[in-house]
Amino acid sequence: MSTASPSRKARIDEMRRAEKARDRRNKIIAFGVGGAVLAGVVGFGVYVFTEQSDKKEAQVAAAKAPIRGEKAWDAKKLGRTHVTKDVTYPMTPPVGGDHHQAWMNCQGDVYTKPVPDKHAVHSLEHGAVWVTYNDKAAKSDVDALAAKVRKTQYSLMSPVRAQAGPIMLSAWGKQVTVDGADDPRVGQFFTRYVMGKQTPEPGAACSNGVTLDGAGKPVLGGGME
Predict the structure, then answer these.
(1) Residues 146/150/153/159 CA torsion (nearest 10 deg)
(2) pTM for the whole structure
(3) How many Cα atoms are found within 13 Å in the side-chain-facing hemisphere of 58?
(4) Quick check: keyword Transmembrane helix in the entry (predicted)?
(5) Domain C-terminal end among 44, 65, 86
(6) What integer pLDDT is reported at residue 48 of this predicted model?
(7) Is 42 in the same domain as 99?
(8) Which of helix, strand or coil describes residue 210?
């Protein structure tokens, strides 16, 4: 068995050392790249989490902040007796009081003709937000609000010609006049009062109630209390 010459053995040893050094460099580079990728992923995750947390905190803050120009009535003093006759309310649109035992459908229903107050008030009792407008409201605002209502359970919309403001939002015991569909108070009001804490009967139905026929006359559904 032959043995390698000293010079050949030295070259082989040098090649092995070079190969081991190259392997070490590759591992260091791979570790560095992997660490950078991991740091990037972690950093992105932290960014997303922080951004979502900030948005949630902003939403919570907006929900708690006072709504500019909002009017409020003592919910305990608003009657809740079921009646069959028409009711004269002290505010327009009404935000509570005695009402008919059948509610207006409020599953995102948009009515283009006036609805009876006594049915709409019952919807408010169930946690609905009622969007109303008169002839002074811009058509673009009416259309935009109608689109929002159609996407929102426990809301309804109808014209109320006698109201003071062009666009008003009402919930049980709460009401605000807004400047238009893009007024930030619209989102505030919906966030706070659609099935909000002011609801006297949370979980009550908003379907199978009263609708309007083609002539604008109320059509009773099967839902009554």
Answers:
(1) 30
(2) 0.74
(3) 7
(4) yes
(5) 65
(6) 55
(7) no
(8) strand
